[in-house]
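wait is this the right file?? whatever heres the structure
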């Protein structure tokens, strides 16, 4: 009888040490470097973005992560906002590289000017 009680006490004390199973596994790490560069050499800008949780040096990290999540990190598939841009020719290249949910990614696209870039990429390249 004493052995049974001792066993029950030991089991009760050990129960909190066994981790509870999580309902959903956390997503693998996301760390991206985003850059824009004017082909005419007028400007260049780079920032770092992390997601899940959103952070890094991107000024709109939460919005950018949400936008990228809708297209599984391929910013070339983002829906255009429909805003109007001037017809200025200032070719601008946007580049995304790093890891998206643990998978290496690289996307690059060239736009006719910075306005067209922002219209087509939402908050992703708005840094």
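ok assuming it is, sequence goes like this
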């Amino acid at each position: 009888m004493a052995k049974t009680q001792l066993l029950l006490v030991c089991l009760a004390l050990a129960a909190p040490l066994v981790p509870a199973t999580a309902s959903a596994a956390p997503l693998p790490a996301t760390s991206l470097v985003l850059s824009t560069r004017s082909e005419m050499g007028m400007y260049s800008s780079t920032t770092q973005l992390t997601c899940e949780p959103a952070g890094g040096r991107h000024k709109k990290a939460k919005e950018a992560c949400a936008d990228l999540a809708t297209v599984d990190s391929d910013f070339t598939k983002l829906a255009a906002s429909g805003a109007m841009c001037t017809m200025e020719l200032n070719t601008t290249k946007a580049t995304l590289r790093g890891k998206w949910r643990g998978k290496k990614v690289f996307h690059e696209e060239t736009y006719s000017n910075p306005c067209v870039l922002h219209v087509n990429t939402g908050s992703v390249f708005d840094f």
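Residues 92 and 114 are 6 Å apart (CA to CA). so i think its the right one actually
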